[in-house]
Every structure is written in structure tokens, then in C-alpha cells.
Write a structure and sequence with these properties.
The protein is α+β, with helices and mostly antiparallel strands. It has 3 domains: 8-197, Heat Shock Protein 90 (2-Layer Sandwich), CATH 3.30.565; 204-330, Ribosomal Protein S5, domain 2, CATH 3.30.230; 393-598, Ribosomal Protein S8, Chain: A, domain 1. Helix content is 36%, strand content 22%. It is built from 19 helices and 25 strands. A hairpin with a 4-residue loop joins β23 (489-492) and β24 (497-504). α2 (23-36) runs parallel beside α6 and α16 runs antiparallel to α17. It is elongated and about 95 Å long.
Length: 598
């Protein structure tokens, strides 16, 4: 079969398959063009998920008649003034978006520069270009794309439902809006909830406001500011608290020089930074922005510009991991505000029958007139209770110190079921899981010892022999050097057994045999793919669990308050080693609302 030159229109349609995968891809290209044109207001409208209509209107610089003629030609762009592909300072640069869209749809562009007396328009019908004509139009540009993929109907079969395509468009607009908070964005159309993001002021507060517009008020309340710099890279943004997590990574928004990206290197760095705080099946929520010299990153590695390649990827990964770990450690005991909300919702569901809601008491209601009014409430405090309460109330033996009430976790007032510490703050109540909290404290203490000079060890008077499966013995002996650095000295003791001659001093009262078996299980679970450092962290978490204050152990008031104070000073104490919250806080106003007082 002879070789032949492809028709230019067919070439454009092939290129469209790379650039315009779905309606959301076209919206992304057009909105990025508007941002590169300096627009401060961008409006997007779609019909039938973008198949029937995509309209993007902006107030940017606009184009002259000569620019408009070239804009719909292949490999024509205003974004590479010097032709240097390593110095790209704009969002779009390929020069294929408009001709590619015009080759598979009906494309119409209306534009006018601010200093021009009138505007111009051009139309491209499935690759056929019409001449430029004068048109009445305000300063800026309006682009309309109708009947997308009409020229390539086979592509329509691969599109999802109108609702799914509309949601993909909404996601594109949200990501671009987050990267440009000073620009007003609006999105309307069928099969989606209309969006309108007002322009936000410059600076971190304005950025957080825009992120809150996209990710919701809850994220704003549970976000930690990130700001770090290393060599030619700067990392800014906001990271969610570890206890504010999601079932997938959809709430992770990553940007490089204002460009939304989905990059495995960046997502892997985020995962590594949160590994010490989150369960393996949960994902953090965050919005991070990397700014660097354009020469340090290649944004030309993907037709849809969704991936990037850094000149020094290890530097970028180290910056993200280090900055996030430092930010999370500085949060100390903070846990997400959603814990209290979930608690109140649970209480409300358990006390209200399905379909029924408690009616608030009438304004004139007086409990003293009720036939069920309890007797003795007019006497001295607690005089009406003949038997003492069942909970351990030894913390009530002395009044709560006023200075403790002003601390973040308050003053311990009682212990319930020998498991939960109830503390009082100025404006609420804190409930602490004593085992989960102490487990995290011991874990952080062990890590600090390891990083300083190795975990302190104690020589056992008589070595303890632990019988294990042959595979577990092999795993323990293979990691013996690393375990020795954690204070656990293990050596072979014949087939199917190991001997423990030294144990961490902090775990001197632990069941060593059970500890060794749990460590073997941890090594089996982590597998060979996990790095040695991460394996060690898992082992340390297992050791910490053995030394923690167990549920069912009674604590004195002094012990409870000491635990609260140590939590306030320990990084990551808002969640245990397994990613569960160590405490929930209920504001007094929320409790009053639960009882109909507000």
C-alpha cells in the first residue's frame, strides 16, 4: 500500500483526539486561554454536558482581526514569544486547541480588544474556516462550541452520561478557580448545580476563601496553612487535619505554576507525608501550589497538560513531604471539628424516631409545674441524689482550676467506664479515649528517642524465647539490625524460635512474647515493597500499643490532667497510630441546641 499525505482536516481531527478527549477538555483549553488573556471575569455555560453547547465568555485582552485569523490555524499561538519551549509562563502553549475543536465541531469566536472601535468574528464548521467578519461585541472574547464531535460521531460513543460529563466540566472549573482566586468564575447549565465564585482579595486569606468556596466551609475550619521554600521551589497552600480525611483522593488539588495537575510523584509525596497519621484506606484533603522557575519543570509531556516532569523530582518530593510533616507536627493535638458534629448527629439519631423530630418546649413552659418534676432540686447541690453516681468522679474532689479551663483540652472532671476521660473547657466538653491518646504519646516518645540516639534498651535478666512460624522467624532475623536500633535485640534460637535479650526500656512491663509476635505480624503485613524507614515506623506503632494505658484502667484526677497536658504538647496527638481521633469536643452551644435550649 503506497504512502500518502493525510488531508489537513483529517490531521486536525486526529490532533483533536489527543487534545479534546471530552467536553471538559475543551472547557479547560478555553478557560485557560481566557486566563492567559488576563481576564478578571469568566463565565461558562454548557448544554447536554457540553455535547450540544459550550460557551466561554471573558473580559480579557481580546484579539485583532489578524490575530483571529491565525488563532484557528494549527501551531499558531501567542504564548511562546521567543519560541523557547523550556520557558513557558502561561497555562496553554500547544497552539492546537482552537483548530482541533473547530475540526470536530462548529466553532464561533467573537472578540474585541479594549482599544478597538469594533470587534470581529470567525466561524469554523467541522474544519471549514469562514472569513473573518466585523461584529458588535464588548471588550473581551466569547467562544461558542456547538455539536461537539459531530464530525467524528464514533467519539460520542465513548462519552459518559450528560450528568457525568457536566460534573467533569464542573471539576475543571473548580480546579482553575482555585488556582486563580482574584478572578470571578461562573458556571451554569443543565445536569449540574450552578457555580458562582466571587473574586477574592490577594494574600493567604483570600486564597483560603476561594478554597473554601470550592471545598466547603468544613475544610476552611480544618485547614492548616503550608508555606515552605527550598532552592528554586516554593510550596504554599492549605492541608487538612489528618482526622479530616476522605475515602478517595478526589479532594486533593495540586497545582504547578497555576496549572492544575494530576501527577503521581506529587500524590505519592502527599501520601508519604500523611502515612504516619492516616489509615491505609483513607486520603487527606488539601490544596497545594508549587511555584518555580519555568526552566525547572517540563509542562509539555502530556497532550492535555495534565502531567508535568520536574528537573529534580527528589527535591520536589522532599519539599512536599518535609513541609507537610512540619505543618502537621505544629498542629500538635488539633483534631477536626467534624468529630463533635458527628457525635451530636449520632446522639440526635438515637433519640429521635425515624421521621419524627422533637418539638421545642413552649416559651411559657415551667418544669416545676410538670407532674413528672423531680423532687429535691431546690435543695443544696447533689443533695437529691441518694446513691452516688456510678462513674469514677474522683476528679471532682477538688474544683477545676480556672487556668486549666482555659487550656485547649480543659480540666479533667471524671472518667467513664474506666476508658473515657471527660474534661471541661470554658465553652464546652471534651471526651478523650485514654488508650488511643496514650498510644500516640508513647509512639511519639519512641520516635523522638530513635531520632536522637536510638531507643533506650534494657538488658533482660533471662532471655525470653518466643516460638514462631519459620517465615516469621526469617522476617525477624532479616530485620534484626533495624529492630536493635528500636531497642529490641533478637537472635536465632534454633528452628522456629527466637531469643530476646534486650527490650526497649519504655516497654519494660510489656508482654515481650506477645510484642515479638505482633512485630512479626507487622513485618508480614508491610511486605517487601515498603521502605525500611516506614517499616520501622509501623514497628514503633506496634510497640507503643503495648505500653499504652489500656481501656479499663482507672486513673486519678492528676493522671487524667497530666495526660491532657501531654496531649497538648505532643505532635499528632489528635489521632492515634491507626488514624482514629483521640478525642471529640462538644461546644456548649451545640449541646444546648441538642436539648432544644437554642
Amino acid at each position: 500500500m503506497p504512502v500518502r499525505q493525510l488531508d489537513p482536516v483529517l490531521v486536525d481531527r486526529i490532533a483533536a483526539g489527543e487534545v479534546v478527549e471530552r467536553p471538559a477538555s475543551a472547557v479547560k483549553e478555553l478557560v485557560e486561554n481566557a486566563l492567559d488573556a488576563g481576564a478578571w471575569r469568566i463565565e461558562v455555560a454548557i448544554e447536554q454536558g457540553g455535547r450540544k453547547l459550550i460557551r466561554v465568555v471573558d473580559d480579557g485582552a481580546g484579539m485583532t482581526a489578524a490575530d483571529l485569523t491565525l488563532a484557528v490555524e494549527r501551531h499558531a499561538t501567542s504564548k511562546l514569544p521567543d519560541g523557547d519551549l523550556s520557558n513557558i509562563g502561561t497555562l496553554g502553549f500547544r497552539g492546537e486547541a482552537l483548530p482541533s475543536i473547530g475540526s470536530v465541531a462548529r466553532l464561533e469566536i467573537f472578540t474585541r480588544p479594549a482599544d478597538a472601535p469594533n470587534g470581529h468574528s470567525i466561524r469554523v464548521d467541522e474544519g471549514l474556516k469562514r472569513p473573518v467578519a466585523p461584529a458588535a461585541h464588548p471588550p473581551g472574547t466569547r467562544i461558542e462550541v456547538r455539536d461537539l464531535f459531530a464530525a467524528t460521531p464514533a467519539r460520542l460513543k465513548f462519552l459518559k452520561s450528560d450528568r457525568a460529563e457536566a460534573q467533569a466540566v464542573a471539576d475543571v472549573v473548580k480546579r482553575l478557580a482555585m488556582a486563580h482566586p482574584q478572578v470571578r468564575f461562573a458556571l451554569s447549565g443543565d445536569n449540574l448545580t450552578s457555580l458562582e465564585y466571587a473574586a477574592c482579595p490577594a494574600g493567604p486569606e483570600g486564597w483560603l476563601t476561594r478554597i473554601g468556596q470550592v471545598m466547603g466551609r468544613e475544610f476552611q475550619d480544618n485547614a492548616l496553612r503550608v508555606d515552605a521554600e527550598r532552592e528554586d521551589f516554593r510550596l504554599t497552600g492549605f492541608a487538612g487535619l489528618p482526622t479530616y480525611h476522605r475515602a478517595n483522593s478526589q479532594a486533593q488539588y495540586l497545582f504547578v505554576n497555576g496549572r492544575p495537575v494530576r501527577d503521581r510523584l506529587l500524590h505519592g509525596a502527599v501520601r508519604g507525608a500523611y502515612m504516619d497519621y492516616l489509615p491505609s484506606d483513607r486520603h487527606p484533603a488539601l490544596a497545594l501550589f508549587i511555584d518555580c522557575d519555568p526552566h525547572q519543570v517540563d509542562v509539555n509531556v502530556h497532550p492535555a497538560k495534565a502531567e508535568v516532569r520536574f528537573r529534580d523530582p527528589s527535591l520536589v518530593r522532599g519539599l512536599i513531604v518535609g513541609a507537610l510533616k512540619q505543618t502537621l507536627a505544629a498542629a500538635l493535638h488539633r483534631a477536626s471539628t467534624t468529630g463533635g458534629t458527628r457525635t451530636l448527629d449520632t446522639l440526635a439519631r438515637r433519640n429521635v424516631s425515624p421521621g419524627k423530630y422533637p418539638a421545642p418546649p413552649p416559651a411559657h413552659w415551667d418544669w416545676r409545674a410538670s407532674p413528672a418534676a423531680p423532687t429535691g432540686f431546690g435543695e443544696n447541690a447533689q443533695a437529691s441524689f441518694a446513691p452516688p453516681p456510678a462513674a469514677d468522679t474522683r476528679a471532682h474532689e477538688t474544683p477545676a482550676a480556672p487556668d486549666l479551663l482555659d487550656t485547649p483540652l480543659g480540666a479533667a472532671r471524671t472518667q467513664l467506664h474506666d476508658t473515657y476521660i471527660v474534661a471541661q473547657t470554658r465553652d464546652g466538653v471534651v471526651i478523650v479515649d485514654q488508650h488511643a491518646a496514650h498510644e500516640r504519646l508513647v509512639y511519639e516518645r519512641l520516635k523522638k528517642q530513635r531520632d536522637a540516639a536510638g531507643v533506650a534498651r534494657q538488658l533482660l535478666l533471662i532471655p525470653i524465647v518466643v516460638e514462631l512460624d519459620g517465615a516469621d522467624v526469617d522476617r525477624l532475623l532479616e530485620n534484626a539490625a533495624a529492630l536493635a536500633g528500636l531497642g529490641l535485640a533478637i537472635e536465632s534460637f534454633g528452628p522456629g524460635a527466637v531469643a530476646v535479650s534486650e527490650a526497649p526500656a519504655l516497654l519494660k512491663d510489656a508482654d515481650i512474647g506477645r510484642l515479638v509476635r505482633d512485630v512479626a505480624d507487622t513485618l508480614a503485613e508491610t511486605g517487601a515493597a515498603l521502605s525500611l524507614e516506614k517499616k520501622i515506623d509501623h514497628v514503633l506503632a506496634t510497640m507503643a500499643c503495648h505500653h499504652s494505658v489500656r481501656a479499663g484502667r482507672r486513673l486519678t484526677g492528676e493522671e487524667m490532667n497530666a495526660l491532657l497536658r501531654e496531649m497538648e504538647a505532643t505532635p499528632g496527638s489528635g489521632q492515634c497510630n491507626h488514624g482514629r481521633p483521640t478525642y471529640v469536643e462538644l461546644k456548649l452551644s451545640d449541646v444546648e441546641r441538642l436539648f432544644g435550649r437554642r
